[in-house]
Amino acid sequence: MLIRMEFAKGAPLKFLSHLDLMRTFQRIFRRAALPLAYSQGFNPHPKIAFSPALPVGAASQCEYLDVELDAQMSGDEILTRMNRQLPEGLEIKKIKEVSQPADALNAIINRAEYTVYFQTKLSEAEVAQYLEELLKREEIIIEKRSKKGIKKKNIRPGIYKLNCQQETAGMCIDMVVQTGSDGNVRPEQILDFLRNECNLAITEARITRTGLYVYADGHYKTPLEVVA
């Protein structure tokens, strides 16, 4: 059976890398004595697949993973076993059995929603003006460093929404950006551009991913809503 899970990764684990998160879940599944299905071949590994990686330093209200089990189990039994093993900062929110075959999470998820809180001396109207001017640009060029050197990339086509509002915790920007197998725009790239190119003073930024979606034909659906 194939299970799709929605889970939250809270502030206590925001500096846990994607690779370490994968290892953490493998330990949780083993300690929960779930009958994991394994791949064939010389080096068998559990059949677990995750949604697009969360930036290190960010928390999330809704991450997803698919895990294949070798035996039928009820969702309640899976939840009960896992909840006994979860570390602080991880919460399983929903579980759904998925008909096989199912498209991979990385292949179908193409939108990510983030909320960014930060401190600034500017007013809401002033920050909104910066964001409006940013969205009017045809290009937003960033530099990506890799082993092959520095590569320039235009991230403007992958920015779909930028809104701001003043709240008691500070200034808040809500953004929807591209994610998944066709490319990723990360919130810190937008923040760095605002700091460096627009001279927007931003300090103490706190990033939370608030949604992952499958966007098609003008509609947003969660990875749990698109499967039978």
From TrEMBL:
<dbReference type="InterPro" id="IPR018768">
    <property type="entry name" value="DUF2344"/>
</dbReference>
<feature type="domain" description="DUF2344">
    <location>
        <begin position="3"/>
        <end position="187"/>
    </location>
</feature>
<protein>
    <submittedName>
        <fullName>TIGR03936 family radical SAM-associated protein</fullName>
    </submittedName>
</protein>
<dbReference type="Pfam" id="PF10105">
    <property type="entry name" value="DUF2344"/>
</dbReference>
